[in-house]
């Protein structure tokens, strides 16, 4: 699961996800700022953190690395442009979007 941004929505949702749905090792959080301290309990439990800024120019390549083979949930903060063409979904500020992989494998 790829989570975009480590803001207040992510801080609230990650504990729920790891308690009820996912193992922390299945989660990667990407943020343009080093906000690891905001989600330290999830990172200590095994989640990964990537500091990277997604732009119009690198969006397809960057998200494609994470969405290629698995169903992913994206929790975004501050991106309101279409996601890579393989997904056909829109990411909105502080929303949760479920993106199916090309193979349609459910999470």
Commentary on this structure:
The protein is of the alpha/beta class. It has one domain (2-99): Rossmann fold (3-Layer(aba) Sandwich). Helices cover 25% and strands 18% of the residues. It has three helices and five strands, in the order E-H-E-H-E-H-E-E. The protein has helices at 8-20, 40-44, 59-67, and strands at residues 2-4, 28-31, 48-51, 72-75, 96-99. The strands form two sheets. It has a three-stranded parallel β-sheet, with no helix packed on it. Strands 4-5 form a two-stranded antiparallel ribbon. The longest helix has 13 residues, at 8-20. Mean pLDDT is 73; it is low at 69-107.
Characteristic key phrases:
two-stranded antiparallel sheet, Rossmann fold, single chain, alpha/beta, 107 residues, disordered C terminus, 3-stranded parallel β-sheet, globular
Integer average pLDDT: 73
CATH class placement: Alpha Beta
Please bin the fraction of helical residues.
Answer: 25-40%
Note the beta-strand portion. 15-25%
Topology as a string of helices (H) and strands (E): EHEHEHEE
CATH topology: Rossmann fold
Helix count equals 3
Task: Please tally the β strands and state the result.
Answer: 5
Proper CATH architecture: 3-Layer(aba) Sandwich
Major sheet: order of its strands?
A: 1-2-3
Rounded radius of gyration (Å): 13 Å
Structural class: alpha/beta
Q: What gap, in angstroms, lies between the N and C termini?
A: 9 Å
Unreliable parts: 69-107
């Amino acid at each position: 699961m790829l989570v975009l941004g480590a803001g207040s929505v992510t801080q609230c949702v990650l504990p729920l996800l790891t308690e009820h749905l996912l193992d922390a090792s299945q989660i990667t959080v990407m943020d343009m700022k080093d906000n690891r301290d905001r989600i330290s309990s999830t990172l200590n439990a095994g989640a990964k953190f990537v500091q990277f800024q997604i732009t119009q120019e690198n969006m397809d390549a960057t998200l494609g690395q994470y969405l290629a083979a698995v169903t992913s949930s994206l929790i975004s903060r501050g991106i309101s442009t279409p996601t890579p063409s393989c997904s056909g979904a829109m990411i909105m500020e502080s929303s949760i979007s479920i993106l199916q992989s090309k193979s349609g494998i459910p999470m």
